[in-house]
Design goal:
By secondary structure, the chain is mainly alpha-helical. The chain contains 8 helices and no strands.
């Protein structure tokens, strides 16, 4: 637990504003899950409640789409299973539409092929090494779809999506981390 707690300590003015705290949803969800596994339901719920303000906004260029999967997981830990399933299901539909080019990368109706207006995903935990914004964004969408499969307990489906994510962007260490966790 001390490692997860240490991961939630950020330097003052880390990213100069509210967006610096977005880096915290990873360790907060993992801490909540660990607390739940250790039988500390009250502590798990308190930690999961800290994640709910991270509901994904298309306004932010920093928060990756998998944020929605972590928010859904937090909702489930808090006992709101119906809304968690609804929330993640709506996110899956949105991600699949983006992958199909039906909407632009920012979630708005697209012009032309819909793949030119994609915002870069930059978090405290991920900086891509590939120069192709479309591949980067699609890699993040596959990563999010992998997280959604884990939400539903489908490890084989999750592995497939994480591998697709890595094929597009080998520097996506979030997908690599998830593949290692599944082993």
């Amino acid at each position: 637990m001390p490692y997860l707690e240490a991961a939630q300590k950020i330097q003052p003015n880390f990213r100069a504003g509210w967006w610096d705290t977005q880096a915290l949803y990873y360790p907060r969800v993992f801490e909540a899950k660990c607390r739940l596994a250790l039988g500390d339901e009250a502590g798990a719920k308190a930690k999961a409640a800290e994640v709910l303000p991270f509901i994904h906004s298309n306004y932010s260029p920093y928060m990756g789409p998998e944020t929605d999967a972590y928010v859904a997981e937090a909702m489930r830990i808090l006992g709101d299973k119906v809304n968690a399933r609804k929330f993640i299901s709506e996110a899956i539909v949105r991600w699949e539409k983006q992958l199909s080019g039906a909407v632009g990368g920012n979630g708005y109706k697209a012009y032309g092929d819909g793949r030119r207006d994609i915002k870069p995903i930059v978090t405290a935990l991920f900086y891509t090494t590939i120069p192709d914004g479309v591949k980067e964004h699609d890699s993040e969408l596959y990563n999010a779809l992998g997280r959604s499969r884990l939400f539903f307990g489908d490890t084989e489906g999750a592995k497939k999506y994480f591998e697709k994510s890595l094929a597009l962007d080998p520097s996506n260490h979030k997908a690599r981390f998830e593949c290692r966790l599944m082993k």
